[in-house]
Amino acid sequence: MKTQQELDYERIAEAITFLKNNFKAHPKLDEAAEHVHLSPFHFHRMFQELSLIHISEPTRQAALSRMPSAA
Fold this sequence. Notes:
By secondary structure, the protein is mainly α. The chain has helices spanning 4-21, 29-35, 40-51, 57-65.
């Protein structure tokens, strides 16, 4: 059986994947929270605590990774 911390990490990982996969739609914090079945307040607190990055970082990274490189 998984611990609560393991479940929380899985939720945050799922949220990061959601944010990266939907970066073109500019998902809001509420949408990411809903995707992992958490309140926006609890999701934001847990995201910052467990990921140590800002909520906008996954979408920024996804956008940058899809930019054409300057050659």
